[in-house]
């Protein structure tokens, strides 16, 4: 009984680490206005508070996962929490924006270790049916931490100021450290006598950095074409680094990643679902937040409160999915749950009328939440089935990396879909506005297109525009353009989830396979 009690306290420690690491991906979003005012910086510059965390997190995930496998996951997990806590304190005390950027980069290194190693530690600290339940609970933590950033961030910023979103990590981190020291079992140092594959680590970092940075450049400059050298050069660098990585890994005796892993259809299916979740559900959070704040007029806290319609399902369904996964084929549970999310996006698409209200949105958000609450926990446990204990850290790192890449691809890709439809609608309908001269329509169209869909509401409903004779017509067109753009986004997200559902059903295996046999 005592040992069982200690296991669940260990799960609390790992869940706290995961929660902090993923929460800090989104929690900063709502603090940007306060940060801009405090540091007297533009929003464009302060986007690097978000981007630097995304970049460093992506390039660190595989490296810290491999180091955990080699030298002991508990050690690296503990070190990651310490790094995260120290960096959080530095961020709260940051005297200028540059110090905050550096602190966020350091914080992301700790976040990478907490996110990827927690899953592997759960898999090695629990056995049998308990493992499925524990991974389900951890999966629910992953889902709710990603979705609850606006709520928690909004409350902290409005109540205690921007620095509180960083300071809150200090006491939580200390609790996680103490619980980890007391209750989490260490894993063997599988590669303590092996040589560290520095070449593979450097090339994997270069590949991910170049890819993510190139996509971030595209996100920040929607008017740049893919052939613009500021984007294309980074994408080419990613391809070259990736080819070099494959070449090195296929020739070294003790590679960072055993390329034979990718012969597994099950792993390919798992990573496909991870990417799809990022492209659809996780990236959509950014567009949903803008819709609620910029177009519906909710505060950050009110937005986060309503987004609980999505995130609460992770808390409800996490433990349930563990039990279901022990009884039924996981690939079918995952596949059919992804189809539910696709239906949710279609429902959202049909709800996107010009004058939208939350009452029209919540049925779709519930369906999205059920998908998130079901798939995340099941994906974690299914992804680690049949994986040798010595490779569990790296495998969980791969799942997290692909989820992160998917989120970045989604923000960029869905953003381009939104911008193109928004621009097309404005070009077609601005000239139809009564009492608006053709020259004014042309100028305003360019202003709205250059500002982008996120800023359109602020321009159309500004005090200056409200006093013009064509104000009502302009506002109607801008709202309609934004609604049309959002409908296109939700349609694309639905298609992505359908493809992922098919991949889960056809590529992933359904029944649990022994881990011990693959040691």
UniProtKB/TrEMBL annotation:
Molecular function (Gene Ontology), one example: transmembrane transporter activity
InterPro entries linked to this entry: EmrB-like, MFS, MFS_dom, MFS_trans_sf
Subcellular location, principal: membrane
Membrane topology: Multi-pass membrane protein
Signal peptide per UniProt: none
Subcellular location: Cell membrane
Stretches assigned to the Major facilitator superfamily (MFS) profile domain: 10-512
Spans traversing the lipid bilayer: 46-64, 76-94, 106-126, 133-153, 165-184, 196-216, 231-248, 268-288, 308-326, 333-353, 489-508
Cellular component terms per the entry's GO annotation: plasma membrane
Alphabetized UniProt keyword annotations: Cell membrane, Membrane, Transmembrane, Transmembrane helix, Transport
One Pfam family cited in the UniProt record for this chain: MFS_1
NCBIfam families hit by this protein: efflux_EmrB
Family, per entry: Belongs to the major facilitator superfamily. EmrB family.
Name of the protein described by the UniProt record: ChaT1 protein
Native species: Secundilactobacillus kimchicus JCM 15530
